[in-house]
């Protein structure tokens, strides 16, 4: 079973599931056959747990602070912990963390093949090089957080300046031959499916035609490209109108999650 196409859900509309250890989770997407998942985890103040990881995990701190082994992870810190490594983690004050779990059998996420990573991302410099000229209207910059071994995928922060609207009235949609996954940290972006605001999430399997995208307000998002360390875009021949004002029209989203962003809603 492949991971389903979800485009897009405002995660504020996904209910929390409470667990006996005091954590709460929002499972956004997953493949029950491989164990690959994307979820938000809320750790209570005073939480501590140990063990060994049964699959590789990427963590991004949305709120609060977390310890992963001896590593302290504050706001917007990123970490990768390989399968077979320590799962020891704790939080004195509580934390909300976005977690990308690799599959149980993913050979590229095993300790010894994949190295642990811990990054204080606010201290990183932004890279404005090598972006496709067709996306110049978004005025993009990125911070590459991880490149997986054997071309297994890239995780990065992506930001675009406000006023990201081209002079043209139409743009070409695009397609990638690898999966693409995104969580919106702040700001907003228009897509044909509607306005993605803070807390928006999508997962696109390979081969999904998408866009165009514009951003009057600017945005900050964390993105992954499972299956490729370099994004290659296949631009379509046709032109589509700029999606400003498009009504919310999600694809693959459960009906009970399918509501647009509510101003002031927390994840």
Automatic annotation (TrEMBL):
Domain of life: Bacteria
Name of this protein: DUF4437 domain-containing protein
InterPro entries: ChrR-like_cupin_dom (IPR025979), RmlC-like_jellyroll (IPR014710), RmlC_Cupin_sf (IPR011051)
Residue ranges constituting the ChrR-like cupin domain according to the UniProt record: 8-101, 139-217
